[in-house]
Design brief:
about 400 residues, Rossmann fold, Helicase, Ruva Protein, domain 3, binds adenosine-5'-diphosphate, binds magnesium ion, AAA_16, ATP binding, WH-like_DNA-bd_sf
């Protein structure tokens, strides 16, 4: 070990001197923006996006871009990467600003504008203070315009996961600001959505003011997923990854759609599992455990986010499954159990028809599986419902909801 004269560290055997498995875990953080040579298979998207934003580098108006694509297709990464390069490429005398807003977090117009103003404002240049909260939306807009005019010729604003924003006014006002004479600075917007046709579903005023080009990101294939992970293999200590780890993680991540987020999550998790087991190497079994864990996480998110009535319906199905040897139940039986739960918890009881719709929604989300069984000419068609995940796990997750906690079987 080299000793650092400025360090007072004492070697204490209680603590390990380095990590056995990871050498730079940060490379596997989802928000981490890798260097250009670690980005796989997105040259075309990068150059198309750059073309649209080219104006910004010269101090005139960039175009707006709407990026569509499923989760983990590199939308956030490519947007941040291109912004970084635009800042570096700014021509002499051109001042470019860029800002990233996560609309999942800043999901109201006021929050997003106050965040934008705070992020773009350099107090030492503008002498403007942007308070975190407390101002009206219009005051925040005024501060934003002022800080932009005081600093920049052009700005590029990323509005990530814009479909989670509870209002479209932000998009409209930002797109109109220059034309409406509110600012001298040009604004280019990169709006990102997992949901296709986001703009088509906004109102007419937004549609007409947000002039834009569209970019579609395709899922990765298993080869690209492998390469993405291999490019980050230096997150691990030398020789720690067994050969089959990356291909297997890629195969899992390619199963639903080619999702790089899932690939990297599984890889990181596999490393954590191996570490906790005290293993010397990350092996196939660790990847399998990590995959199961990722599935459970995804499932928990689905169940946690479900409306109360859907939770009651799922709870009914879990009660039946836990207390019986069968795992699939006729809708009428699940409904009887659901009624008992609602009465007990003092909840409204939905009609059988609405109840069926709820089960269908849950089937669509991949929580429940519905099978049609034909009971012959007299019996007609019946539906059988089955939980996809382990009923105990579902039950525990539902009972985490304070509104459901009073339910106790037996
Ligand atoms: N082409 C790529 N090359 C390298 N890493 C990638 C690539 N695409 C995505 N990633 C990584 O996968 C994860 C998810 O990507 P992200 O950009 O967040 O996807 P999206 O925004 O489309 O959901 C991030 O950690 C990102 O760095
Ligand atoms: Mg993203």
């Amino acid at each position: 070990m080299t000793s650092d004269p400025s360090s007072n560290a004492v070697d204490d055997p209680l603590f390990e001197s380095g990590h056995r498995i990871f050498s730079n875990k940060d490379l596997l953080k989802i928000g981490h923006v890798p260097e250009a040579d670690r980005i796989v298979g997105r040259d075309e998207e990068i150059s198309k996006l750059a073309k649209r934003l080219n104006g910004a580098v010269h101090g005139y108006s960039p175009e707006n871009v709407m990026i569509y694509g499923k989760t983990g297709t590199g939308k956030s990464l490519v947007s941040m990467h291109v912004c970084q390069r635009a800042r570096n490429a700014a021509q002499d005398g051109v001042a470019i600003g860029t800002a990233y807003i996560d609309c999942a977090e800043d999901n109201t117009e006021t929050q997003a504008i106050s965040s934008l103003a705070a992020k773009l404002n350099d107090e030492s240049v503008t002498d403007i203070t942007v308070p975190h909260t407390g101002l009206s939306t219009s005051k925040y807009y005024k501060l934003l315009w002022k800080t932009l005019d005081a600093q920049f010729d052009s700005v590029i604003i990323i509005l990530d996961e814009i479909d989670l924003m509870n209002d479209d006014s932000l998009l409209m006002k930002l797109s109109r600001a220059e034309e409406a004479g509110k600012i001298d600075c040009s604004i280019g917007i990169i709006a990102i959505s997992n949901k296709i046709q986001y703009v088509d579903n906004t109102n007419e005023r937004v549609k007409s003011s947000f002039q834009h080009k569209e970019l579609f990101f395709k899922p990765y294939d298993a080869n690209q997923l492998r390469e993405i992970m291999l490019n980050r293999a230096d997150a691990f200590q030398d020789g720690v990854l067994s050969d089959d780890v990356v291909p297997l993680s890629a195969a899992f991540a390619a199963q639903e759609h080619g999702d790089a987020r899932k690939a990297i999550d599984i890889l990181r998790h596999a490393g954590e599992v191996a570490y906790e087991e005290g293993a010397e190497k990350v092996r196939e079994e660790h990847v399998r455990q990590a995959q199961q864990h990722a599935e459970k996480d995804r499932f928990r998110e689905l169940v946690n986010g479900a409306p109360t009535q859907a939770k009651a319906a799922l709870l009914a199905l879990t009660e039946l499954s836990v207390n019986s040897d069968d795992d699939a139940f006729l809708t009428s039986r699940v409904y009887d159990q659901y009624e008992q739960i609602c009465e007990y918890l003092d909840m409204d009881i939905l009609s059988v028809r609405r109840f069926r719709d709820i089960l269908k929604e849950q089937a669509f989300l991949g929580v429940v599986e519905i099978e049609k069984i034909n009971k012959g000419s007299a019996g007609g068609i019946h539906l059988q419902n089955r939980l996809i995940e382990d009923p105990q796990v579902v039950r525990e997750t539902i009972l985490e909801d304070s509104r459901m906690q009073n339910w106790n079987s037996e």
